[in-house]
């Protein structure tokens, strides 16, 4: 299961692999596409999706409850692996101005949040997840991580982004409508007495979270996230790419939509093309700055099997007002 991404259980051999994963382009995505699309064993991944006759609903249901159960079952926090490579991949994070505010959507055990907090002492990370257990675990892991003073800099909150709207304290209506300049000037740090809200986010990170949300709900989820991003702010995206090894392992009965699958525990996984990502973020009013596949080969140390991983890396900006 690709929560392996968050857990580092996986396949990768070599101590510097986490870095390598995001900096190498070991093969061409077009070559993998040609290979997969000409292999009859994979043909069921390519065909249009038809809702099974016995199904009572035409869309996969939000898998938030499945994620909550997942986190309850994995309360030890073993699905934690600091994502240090993100700072190299998105250099604007460590180089951001003082008092940057970042929203980590679907923070899990804090694998991304830890790296963000480590990158600068003046960064505040607001982190939401639909699971209370994982938020508690993230808080515990971050509090116990050496070298990070998190006092007031890590603000976890419970929220199902597929259903709920962000709380007003994150960005109130007045601030949503205010100019970039006004928002920046008036809202340093975390919410203080008499302050309307924290004033919107300079960055939003969506790292292996959007793929966990039903495809049909992605547009409204992204719109919701963009509503709390300041004009000029960046949305940083990392997620599964089409024909990633983990997609090809899904069996026909696990398909719940086109390029959309359900794991045996009920959590969902969608596999993105660049065009899909482009359309989703453009529709939410964002401008594309970077968008590419990251294609990495690695070898399973235990069985020597070759693995071809595909991720999508994207950077989008909310137009400055
Ligand atoms: C693969 S993990 C990624 C965690 C983290 N972003 C990281 O970098 O490791 C996906 C996370 O999204 C959360 N999630 C899934 N659906 C969600 C929803 N509807 N609302 C909020 N969080 C959600 C899950 O609980 C899980 O922690």
Distinct compounds present: S-adenosylmethionine
Structural class: alpha/beta
Strand order of the largest sheet: 3-2-1-4-5-10-9
Query: What is the CATH T-level topology?
Result: Rossmann fold
Q: Just name the CATH architecture.
A: 3-Layer(aba) Sandwich
Region (Disordered): 1-24
Biased composition (Basic and acidic residues): 13-24
InterPro entries: METTL2/6/8-like (IPR026113), SAM-dependent_MTases_sf (IPR029063)
EC number: 2.1.1.-
Written description of the protein model:
- It is a single chain.
- The protein has a single domain, classed as 3-Layer(aba) Sandwich (Rossmann fold).
- The protein starts with a helix and ends with a strand.
- The protein is an alpha/beta fold.
- The N terminus is likely disordered.
- The strands form 2 sheets. A 7-stranded mixed beta sheet has the order 3-2-1-4-5-10-9. Strands 6-7-8 form a 3-stranded antiparallel beta sheet, with no helix packed on it.
- The structure holds S-adenosylmethionine.
- S-adenosylmethionine binds next to helix 1, helix 5, helix 7 and strand 2.
